[in-house]
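_Per-residue structure_
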Amino acid sequence: MTAAVLSVVLLLCAAGAIYLACEVFVNGIEWVGRSLSVGSTATGTILAAFGTALPESVITFIAVAFGHTDAQRDLGVGAALGGPLALATVAYPVVGLTLILTGQTLVPSASRDRLFARLSRDQGAFLAIFAVKLAAGLVAFALKPWLGVLFLAAYAIYFWTEMSREETEESADALDPLLLARQTPNPHWALSVGQTVAALAVIFGASRLFVSQLDGLAPLLGVRPQLLSLLASPVATELPETLNAIIWVRQGKLKLALANISGAMMIQATVPTAFGLFYTPWHLDAPLLLAGTLTLLTIAGLFLAFRQGVVTRGLLTATGLVYGVFCLGLAVLHL
């Protein structure tokens, strides 16, 4: 077996392990939230989003904090920019396409208007944070690492706001049985915590393997590691959001699907960026600026659409075209 084939096999195994561990993590963290009496409003934006956005954040942290070469650290920066791009141009289109395939429409209603208003606020906050994120990558100054603290603080404010938001309608869905206690309707909190911690450990180890194999595969393919991380890493690690969106939309739970994506984007805009600022110069080159600019434009369009209440299945699906533009742009820059 050649080195390239072995790297691809290990890369796929690591991505699969990350995804499966995230499924276990989300199941556990939801039961932890039940034990802590967390309201159902935060299920999509905080609990599910935290679990599904974890791989990208861990990959960034592993790459920038433990990377021994500039190429490995570049992988982390690429993942920090690629995650929001994948959510904006892959996850949202999946929601739109699933709505079309299942014959569902976004019928005007008070509940839909509340959802759109809430999502527009999230998108507006994301735009402000992401603009600062891009601007920081264009200039060099001594205190840049301290900006990481501000990004973590921004997410802490968002977290607190979502966790303290009062319910406006009943939306408490029954949780799936805890994987470690399938026959127990109310498992002990220690079991849910243990399952969550164990899944986190698997995610951490698989993420390290993913980063190392991606770093080794790039030279074999004649591709810069950062470019490969912009394409391969986000698509693999955003699988939980994408697959969760398909499942929830098919079940008629559009609110959970969109809230999961929106909450994950807030994590991606802040936590991985903070890690990058702490451990790297955070200097963005042309491919990274392309990814960031396209993300900014896509979310700006969705922000206006959600704000005006004109989001449609077709509009969500059409955002996938931006990812095609990104791939073409990367090809041009690489050549």
User: Anything to note?
Assistant: The CA atoms of residues 262 and 285 lie 26 Å apart. The radius of gyration is 19 Å.
